[in-house]
Amino acid sequence: MAAFTRARELGADGVELDARRSADDVVVVHHDPTARRVGLLAGQPFAALRAARPDIPTLDEALDACAGLTVNVELKNLPGQRDYDPGERLAGLVADTLARRGHRDDTLVSSFNLDTLDRFRALDPTPTGFLTLRGFDPLTALALAAERGHRALHPDVRGLDTRPAAVVVDAAHQAGLAVHVWTVNRRATIVTLAAAGVDAVITDVPDVARAALGRDDAPLS
pLDDT tens digits, residue range 164-193? Predict the structure, then answer.
């Protein structure tokens, strides 16, 4: 939560966060399937998680803290991880959360798992983005995302080593998809991607990104 507040102070347009579930189907925000003093998040009821790790917020708490910012909610449901659920409960839980909140939050939902993303899209109108790793050809990923009705491609910045960013952006925009590149921390790379027309960069250093884009007048601190 402190990081979300700091991102706002540094002038970020939005935040990216990772959604997982507790054993009793509360959506919580945490990158890994396990946490210190807790173990497997999906193996513990939320009350136990809150008692052991009060710093791990629920999705509702995170969205409240990020009011006015765009929030990229990544659905963490990956085969091979200990909390993988082929029944795709997480997609339904996040859809329920956004619907209960009246879709008042500015959200985008992303995932590396296309099945998870497809399930969410079938349940909720929130725009969706397909996350890809370095070895996944971005044009192949773009075709898959477009075929399945998703609204954005989220390639690893290192995955653009084999394809000029401008080529990927042009193909995506022709297909009606946005391109949001992660994780971009080098000023020169941010400038290059902006010139190529990407729609957003996901970064650990929003103040550096703003300066690189000529938008460094707005951070609050």
Answer: 999 999 999 999 999 999 999 999 999 999
